[in-house]
Each structure stands twice: as C-alpha cells, then as structure tokens.
C-alpha cells in the first residue's frame, strides 16, 4: 500500500514538539521525559533533533516506545 511522506513522518514524535529547546542552557529534562512517555504511550519513535539538551533529572525511555533517534546530545 503506498504511503505519503506525511503518513510516514506521523510515526515519529519530536522532543521539540513537547517543549524541549536544545540550546544547551535550558533544563529540558521535564520536556524530554514527557516526550519519552508520549512516544511510549503512542508506540511511536522519538526524535531528539540537533542541539544540546540539558537535563538535571534521570531520563527513562519506556520499553514500549518504537525507538529513539538521537541527532543531538543530552547533557547531564
């Protein structure tokens, strides 16, 4: 069955969609964890795009998420 690019991209969530900034200064921990939880709840892949995402809290990607694509870095 042919699929559109829009359909295919709909299989991913972006950390930025849930509030992560990725500027290396802002604490993105809460937004990253919310994105990880949303990916798990929806069974989608999470994209952490380019940038430096700072977190002061431990992060956990629940096992039911479809996957994680890291293009940036998470700084603890």
Summary?
By secondary structure, this protein is of the alpha/beta class. The protein has two helices and six strands; from the N terminus they run H-E-E-H-E-E-E-E.
Model description:
This protein is α/β, with parallel strands linked by helices and 76 residues long. 25% of the residues lie in helices and 29% in strands.
Gyration radius, rounded: 13 Å
Task: Flag low-confidence runs.
Answer: none
Strand ordering within the main sheet: 1-3-5
What is the strand content? 25-35%
Tally of separate helices: 2
What would the average pLDDT be, to the nearest integer? 90
What is the succession of H and E elements? Answer: HEEHEEEE
Q: Using DSSP, what is the number of strands?
A: 6
How would a crystallographer describe the biggest sheet? 3 strands, parallel
Helix content: 25-40%
Task: Tell the overall outline.
Answer: globular
Structural class: alpha/beta
Kindly report how far apart the N and C termini lie.
43 Å
Write the layout of secondary structure elements.
Blueprint: H1 5-9, E1 12-14, E2 23-27, H2 29-42, E3 45-48, E4 52-54, E5 67-70, E6 73-75
Parallel strand pairs: 1-3, 2-4, 3-5, 4-6
Question: Keyphrases for this structure?
Answer:
single chain, 76 residues, alpha/beta, 3-stranded parallel sheet, 2 helices, globular
């Amino acid at each position: 069955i042919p699929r559109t690019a829009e359909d295919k991209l709909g299989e991913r969530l972006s950390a930025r969609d849930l509030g992560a900034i990725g500027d290396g200064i802002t604490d993105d921990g809460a937004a990253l964890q919310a994105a990880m939880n949303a990916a798990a709840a929806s069974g989608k892949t999470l994209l952490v795009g380019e940038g430096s995402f700072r977190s002061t809290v431990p992060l956990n990607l629940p096992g039911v998420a479809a996957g994680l694509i890291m293009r940036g870095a998470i700084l603890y």
